[in-house]
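Appendix B, example 12.
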Amino acid sequence: MTTWVVAADASRARIFSRERPGDELIELEAMTNPEARLSEQGLVTDRGGAATNGTQGGMHGVDGEHEFKEHEMEKFAKHVAERLYKARMEKHYHKLYVMAAPSFLGLLRKNYHSEVSHVLAAEVDKNLTLHSEADIRKHLPGNNVPEVAGF
């Protein structure tokens, strides 16, 4: 029975597979979201400027600077969730573990299809996207890692 493991954050998602518990993870796919790394100026060329705060004397952005990055993060979460749904419908996996940066994990949860939710074995709210396969595997259930929750 095939298990998929996803390690994701706002800018990348890595999808791994294994056939049996204890097997090494094989990286199947890497999805990227380069827009998540762009500065606000790179995302929007005609944006509002900055305003001074008279009471504190500091500068702050206007027009919701972070809205653009949040929007890109939400789009990427939907894209990852859709990929997981499509793979589930094609019976590429029977069990799923998701390891994601906490803020991105929340966005993924909002976008899981019920077919994906039914095979979701556990979630780990930790960003492991840049970690090795061996480090990611250590965070799977049965490896006595306290960060793994929900069993």
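The first strand starts at residue 3 and ends at 8. The chain has a mean pLDDT of 83.
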